[in-house]
């Protein structure tokens, strides 16, 4: 009440975007909690971002399950679109990098990664959702771990007993260089890959959200709190906000593609490792 | 029972975005597993079935077209063979007809020549006979006429032996004259 009253009387202060935006209040299943973990972290807690993720996931399920229900040899317009999306991952990522045989094995994984990342990225520019499901570390981290496990599984299955030796001590290197090469290989392959996958996706979307909030909060502030000569400035930030929204769309697709293709590349490298 | 974020916000701290909340990981994993199962067990098999069906349809179409083409080629081949056979037959028939015609013509010509020769020979024979007959009758008649005439001129009859001799001589003269002339 006091907030409303103050807003009516004096100019609303500028609300800068903050990292707290990514940790909204848990409004459902706040109990039970884990007493020893992160100050009583709720086990099944659902906040706004979890809800946005559920909406994205449900949209994906509806689109793909309903869209592939009655498929025809000669596709309708909607079916063509779905086939194009799935075909992009199949031909452009899986078969292109892994070949048809291995590509088919890892296709469900790559398809899931691509579309899950894409859908949860896009929620960042969809009105009323307005936050990317991937801008909070959970999804990027889980998917990076999945990708990590996938390429280790692929390597170990293809070259049982030799995968780790091949990865850590590549053939054709003088023995004394292994002192340097092996730690470097370990760090780059087994530490940096999952970390970069996680951070690249999360930071892109997180920063994108902060930028959008900055532009639109500034617009709101210039237009409604300051007014006068600042309206021109507000128009400028609004245009920038629009432009950045378009840019964010590009980033959404690009980051989904990058995540899926890097996973495919890691699997390919693991499969192709020399004996 | 406050969330980390709320507590931090109240204290004026910024939450660390790199530290995942437990529910964040949990729900992310749940969503991933559900999506993976749906793509793996529902969506992709459907699409694969469709692609297989489509490939089969296309291959079937290609095969059908190839079959039709092969049939057409075979038909063309057989028509060509038949045509060639018919042509060969026609030309052989023509050849035979030409040979037959030549033979018939030769036969006819030979027969005509023969006939002509025969007719000529008969005619000559008959002419010869006529001539002979005419000659002999003329011979006797001319003799008698001449004798009659000479009897009338001389006024006396001549005995037959003398007259015969005269006639013969006369005729011989006549003949000689005819020959020399």
TrEMBL record, chain A:
Alphabetical keyword list: ATP synthesis, Cell membrane, CF(0), Hydrogen ion transport, Ion transport, Membrane, Transmembrane, Transmembrane helix, Transport
The species this protein was found in: Agrococcus baldri
One Pfam family recorded for the sequence: ATP-synt_A
Protein's name in the database: ATP synthase subunit a
Biological role stated in the UniProt entry: Key component of the proton channel; it plays a direct role in the translocation of protons across the membrane.
HAMAP family associated with the record: ATP_synth_a_bact
InterPro entries, per database record: ATP_synth_F0_asu (IPR000568), ATP_synth_F0_asu_bact/mt (IPR045083), F0_ATP_A_sf (IPR035908)
Top-rank lineage group of the source organism: Bacteria
Membrane topology: Multi-pass membrane protein
Gene symbol of the encoding locus: atpB
Family, similarity comment: Belongs to the ATPase A chain family.
CDD domains in UniProt: ATP-synt_Fo_a_6
A GO term for molecular function: proton-transporting ATP synthase activity, rotational mechanism
Protein localization: Cell membrane; Membrane
Annotated GO CC locations: plasma membrane; proton-transporting ATP synthase complex
UniProtKB/TrEMBL annotation, chain B:
Alphabetically ordered keywords of this record: ATP synthesis, Cell membrane, CF(0), Coiled coil, Hydrogen ion transport, Ion transport, Membrane, Transmembrane, Transmembrane helix, Transport
Main location: membrane
Coiled-coil residue windows: 62-133
Subcellular location field: Cell membrane
Residues annotated as transmembrane: 25-44
Pfam families: ATP-synt_B
One Gene Ontology MF term: proton-transporting ATP synthase activity, rotational mechanism
SUPFAM superfamilies assigned to the protein according to its UniProt record, in alphabetical order: F1F0 ATP synthase subunit B, membrane domain
The keyword Transport belongs to this UniProt entry's keyword annotation: yes
Domain of life: Bacteria
Assigned protein family: Belongs to the ATPase B chain family.
Function in brief: Component of the F(0) channel, it forms part of the peripheral stalk, linking F(1) to F(0). F(1)F(0) ATP synthase produces ATP from ADP in the presence of a proton or sodium gradient. F-type ATPases consist of two structural domains, F(1) containing the extramembraneous catalytic core and F(0) containing the membrane proton channel, linked together by a central stalk and a peripheral stalk. During catalysis, ATP synthesis in the catalytic domain of F(1) is coupled via a rotary mechanism of the central stalk subunits to proton translocation.
Record NCBIfam families: ATP_synt_b, PRK05759.1-3
Subunit and interaction comment: F-type ATPases have 2 components, F(1) - the catalytic core - and F(0) - the membrane proton channel. F(1) has five subunits: alpha(3), beta(3), gamma(1), delta(1), epsilon(1). F(0) has three main subunits: a(1), b(2) and c(10-14). The alpha and beta chains form an alternating ring which encloses part of the gamma chain. F(1) is attached to F(0) by a central stalk formed by the gamma and epsilon chains, while a peripheral stalk is formed by the delta and b chains.
Descriptive protein name: ATP synthase subunit b
Record organism: Agrococcus baldri
Gene designation: atpF
